[in-house]
Amino acid sequence: MYSTELYMNEKLQMITYVLSSGYKGSFPATVRQAKEIFRCFEQGQKIVFNVGDETYAINPDHVASMHVHGLNEASKSVNLPLDDQQDELAKAYHNALDLFKIECKCSATYVVNIKKDTEYGKCNACKEKLFVDRSKGRVPTYKGDAWIMTNKTSVR
Fold first, then answer.
1. pLDDT for residue 9
2. Total-model pTM
3. Is residue 88 part of a domain?
4. Same domain, residue pair 38 and 107
5. Which residues lie closer than 8 Å to 31 by C-beta, 6 or more apart?
């Protein structure tokens, strides 16, 4: 792990980062700190640094991309490749979704991809409440097999 301190007379630059989860954030750093941060990223080292009374810590394993704003001669961007762990996270999120065929009293019929454990929802057309009917099992649709979500019949 690398640690760096701020020299009070140095101009601050904004560094914007995007985590592999999609969260975007930014923080100030000096030109010297920005160069050290990118050097640490290239080597895969964690970094801790101070700007005034604030302390920042960065783990390059969780950052997908980074960019320094306002550095003409040393402007630098880094896009880090996604690793297997991040691919697994994306697959797990996708696996948490399931297909539902919507059949509403207003005659709207469509297929949506929503959370597996959903028990009710609203029709996109009329905003009426819909309930999942798992007693009928999965039905074939143009997107694949889906659960029925309806308000046409009483669901228990």
1. 60
2. 0.43
3. no
4. no
5. 10, 11, 13, 71, 74
